[in-house]
Amino acid sequence: MATQHSRSAARIMMAPAVVLLLGWMLIPLTMTLYFSFKKYLPLRGGDLGWVGFDNYVRFVSSSAFWPSVQTTLIIVGGVLLITVILGVLLAILLDQPLWGQGIVRILVIAPFFVMPTVSALVWKNMFMDPVNGLFAHLWKFFGAQPVEWLSDAPLFSIIMIVSWQWLPFATLILLTAIQSLDSEQLEASEMDGAPPLSRFGYIILPHLSRAITIVVLIQTIFLLAVFAEIFVTTQGSFGTRTLTYLIFQRVLESQNVGLGSAGGVYAIILANIVAIFLMRIVGKNLDS
Amino acid sequence: MARAVTTRRKALNTLIAWSIGLLIFFPILWTILTSFKTEAQAINDPPLFLFFDWTLENYAVVQERSDYMRFLWNSVIIAGGSTVIGILIAVPAAWSMAFVPSKRTKDILLWMLSTKMLPAVGVLYPIYLLFIELGLLDTRVGLTIVLMLINLPIIVWMLYTYFKEIPGEILEAARMDGAALKEEILYILTPMAVPGIASTLLLNIILAWNEAFWTLNLTAAKAAPLTAFIASYSSPEGLFYAKLSAASTMAIAPILILGWFSQKQLVRGLTFGAVK
């Protein structure tokens, strides 16, 4: 009786969250799917009827599509590479005995709490500006010609800004993982005379592999959706138009909703491929 | 992890770690410093680090000219409101999944997580259209609802992992002693759950405060929070470094302070309990 009672109570308690999320998922998703099969131009005639898979074909065959995929991959890959490698090194460093560890950790984590529009604008103006930016001053100090960062090296610049934002996240998670490493194992290997590099390769790295996988998967999902950093710096010009930004432009700027929706469906499929791997790891964790 | 090392080694570690830490923190420090300069000093060649005439003028100008307080208030309402509503909805759900688990609990949790993976841009137009139809565009209510929904999965997950750590035996003991469900929740569960709920609250305020897709796309002048206010500096007129810095400092300061309190929760919350 009691269990029966608490079971139905449990169902009622879960209902609001489940119903809301179900609505949040199904309603817009259905609408996106619906629009993706239509020629729909809100400012130029509205709903112009069903067009089958036309939008899907046109989105992929437009000249902007492959460059945007390439840009997306470069940004996501570049940021992942930088944040994971530097994150592992930083996590190992912060795990060493040192004075003021807590304060250093705070300094390293701080960028994660800076809102994307602020970090992008601060980097764009106060560091990367070819006349008044700090980099320009630094370059001039060494007698070099200042670089027009956002037009000459736009992808590199955006990768740098986004990496600065996400390095704290990778470091923090990898640090948490390192701290769960059995220190006796490390000490034993140290006493057996294992050099630092093989200690790193055979003990630390394998121990971190799961945390690294999680960092990569979670960051990928967020990085695929990078928006504000591009919105306030290059607005998608100079070859910085990612898939997300391209869809945004199709939908809101040129108000070609059918085409943009087809792009949206591609983006959803792409994100889901990454999500499946992440969910598998998280799901395994639930069982144990 | 107290490993014995020589003082020299520790000093070297300290030196390297502090240098890197300061380097990473430098853009924030530079922004804060610049906010106290005059516009002319802000672009001085060579750059001025500490020896300039410190002034609070920029803060006054930003407030006066752009009505900073209104954007701040929008941020507070939207971030705070979405988090509080989210927690009110999530607590019962997480509670029931943690203490009355069924065969489907795991599937429901994973499904909730999967809604978080939905790329926002994929549903941008439908939400935009619904907002127009329902008169929610550029309103704080609309944005609060959307941010509550996008963070709800994280809130449920975080609360679930915290509740899971409360030993079930305590509840059973209370039940045997004749405690009703209401008393069980009020006197036993709540005190044990408060730290977890507080952490969840903190992390989600941070996430909502910094959210910069929906806040940029669904607001105009009226309901714009600080993210959108700062974005308006992307096409400035005249000298503006010091003012940009003052506005930025004001926008990030509250969250920077909250963030430092929530380092541990950050890991748990953003990895959905996969790394603790």
Automatic annotation (TrEMBL), chain A:
Recorded GO cellular component terms are: plasma membrane
One Gene Ontology term from the biological process aspect of the record: transmembrane transport
Location relative to the cell: Cell membrane
Q: Which residues cross the membrane?
A: 12-37, 73-94, 106-123, 155-178, 211-232, 263-282
Q: Domain ABC transmembrane type-1 spans what residues?
A: 69-278
Q: Which InterPro entries match?
A: ABC_transporter_permease, MetI-like, MetI-like_sf
Query: Which Gene3D superfamilies has this protein been placed in?
Result: MetI-like
Keywords, ordered alphabetically: Cell membrane, Membrane, Transmembrane, Transmembrane helix, Transport
Where is this protein primarily located?
membrane
Extract the Pfam families matched here: BPD_transp_1
Give the source's domain of life in one word.
Bacteria
Q: How does it sit in the membrane?
A: Multi-pass membrane protein
Which family does the UniProt entry place this protein in?
Belongs to the binding-protein-dependent transport system permease family.
Could you identify this protein by its name? Answer: Sorbitol ABC transporter membrane protein /mannitol ABC transporter membrane protein
- Lineage of origin: Bacteria, Pseudomonadati, Pseudomonadota, Alphaproteobacteria, Hyphomicrobiales
TrEMBL record, chain B:
User: Where does the record place it?
Assistant: Cell membrane
User: What Pfam families is this protein classified in?
Assistant: BPD_transp_1
> Per the UniProt entry, what species is this protein from, by scientific name?
Roseibium marinum
PROSITE patterns linked: ABC_TM1
Q: Which InterPro entries match?
A: BP-dep_ABC_trans_perm, MetI-like, MetI-like_sf
User: What lineage, starting at the top, does this entry show?
Assistant: Bacteria, Pseudomonadati, Pseudomonadota, Alphaproteobacteria, Hyphomicrobiales
Family label: Belongs to the binding-protein-dependent transport system permease family.
Any one biological process term the GO annotation gives: transmembrane transport
- Tell me what this protein is called: Sorbitol ABC transporter membrane protein /mannitol ABC transporter membrane protein
Report TM segments: 12-33, 71-96, 108-131, 143-163, 184-209, 240-261
**Span of domain ABC transmembrane type-1:** 72-262
User: What keywords is this UniProt entry annotated with?
Assistant: Cell membrane, Membrane, Transmembrane, Transmembrane helix, Transport
Q: One Gene Ontology cellular component annotation?
A: plasma membrane
Q: Which domain of life is it from?
A: Bacteria
Q: How does it sit in the membrane?
A: Multi-pass membrane protein
